Known about the structure:
Blueprint: E1 17-22, E2 33-42, E3 48-53, E4 56-58, E5 61-62, E6 66-67, E7 74-82, H1 84-88, E8 93-98, E9 106-110
Antiparallel strand pairs: 1-2, 2-7, 3-4, 3-8, 5-7, 6-7, 8-9
Amino acid sequence: MFFSPTARKADEPSPPDVLLLHSSCSTDPSVEIQLVCHISGFRPRDIQVRWLTDAGSLPGDTEQPRQDAKGSTFSTTSTLNVSQSDWLEGKTYVCEVTHPATQQKLKSRAKLFEREGKC
C-alpha cells in the first residue's frame, strides 16, 4: 500500500489553487477583455471571491462551487469584463480568494505586459 505524507483525508480542509487568465484584444475597441479566475482543489465548499483594482473592488460574476469528478474537492470560476481602454492603460486587476483552509487571502494579478500598450 502506498502512503503519501502530503495526501489529505476526504474531510480535511484543502486550500484552493488560483489561476487568472484573460482574453485577447479585439480590433473592435468596444469589445471588452474578459478576465477569468479559475479556482480549484478546495475543500470545504465555502469560498469568497473579490475583484480588485487600485480604485477598489469591482463587480464580478462567480459561479456556485461544483464538486470535482472525484468528489473530494470543489472548483469554481469567476469572471470580470473590463474595457479595452482600461486594459491598454496597464491597469492591474486582482482576483482575491478567501477560503477557510488558508490563513491568508490568495491573490492572482493580471495586467497588460505587451509591447507599449498595444494588443
